[in-house]
Amino acid sequence: MPSNVSKTILHDSFRVGITLKGFDGILEIVSGAALWLLSPAKMSDLIRALCAHMLSRIPNGYISAHLIAASQRLNNDSREFAAFYLLTHGLVKVILVVCLWMNKLWAYPLTIAVFGLFMLYQMARFTHTHSVALVLLTIFDGLIIYLTWMEFQQQKSRKWKEDNRKETVAG
């Protein structure tokens, strides 16, 4: 059985992790909305403008070059898919994070299942892209699943103790 210090560290790590997931979800919603609302040409211009400062400092910067190349490959179909994906993915994350912050017991197993599905999708995408970022994101999702499971066990134990206390007082 973990000590109180271990429980506190796990709890705090869980809260930090889901907060990061929540912020990530918000960024995905904003990015998805931008993709949805902007034409591919306007998106490409915006990316170029945002990366101009980075390119002036690091002319052969990998991230800037990758973002610009990706924005130039956008067409309406891929843009709409990416926008839909980002909006729904972000919205699901934000809703789950809010429910976890509210200690809704049903949200813990649902979060584990949803993030597990995200991991499967990311690994499937990895077979096509070989992106290190996808591997890192998948590892982070695995960590969040572990922390969510540990927090779920603590929340269930706490709820069980509260219910037993209420029965003892009422009985």
Q: What is the H/E order?
A: HHHHHH
Sequence stretches where pLDDT stays below 50 over 5 or more residues = none
By DSSP (H or I, 4+ residues per run), the number of helices equals: 6
Secondary-structure class? mainly alpha
Structure description:
It contains 6 helices and no strands. It has helices at residues 4-37, 40-57, 62-73, 76-101, 107-129, 132-170. Helix content is 89%, strand content 0%. The chain is mainly alpha-helical. The two termini are 30 Å apart. 13% of the residues are buried. The protein has one domain (4-163).
Short description:
With 171 residues, this protein is an all-alpha fold. The chain has helices at residues 4-37, 40-57, 62-73, 76-101, 107-129, 132-170. It has one domain.
